[in-house]
Write a structure and sequence with these properties.
Length: 93
Amino acid sequence: TVAMLDGLHHHHPLVNGYSGFFPDGERRLRQRLQHFPDEDSLAALRARGVRWIIADNAWLSAGAGQAAAAEPALRVAYRDQRQTLFELDAGSR
């Protein structure tokens, strides 16, 4: 699934919550992210002010990876064996 970095390390808010706490709207956001990186999911992330997205490489390789790689709104900022960090362009934020 799409996830944000561990907030304890970078001290930035997380749109998907942390350690059992889920902010208002998290369930709706999760539903909108099911087809990431479609326009609806990117619009939902932009509306929340998201700039950075971390995705698990196993999830990406299961199908979303090709779409994410081709999406002009996303730039790979970092990749290791487990995760990929995308930067989301500002678009219509």
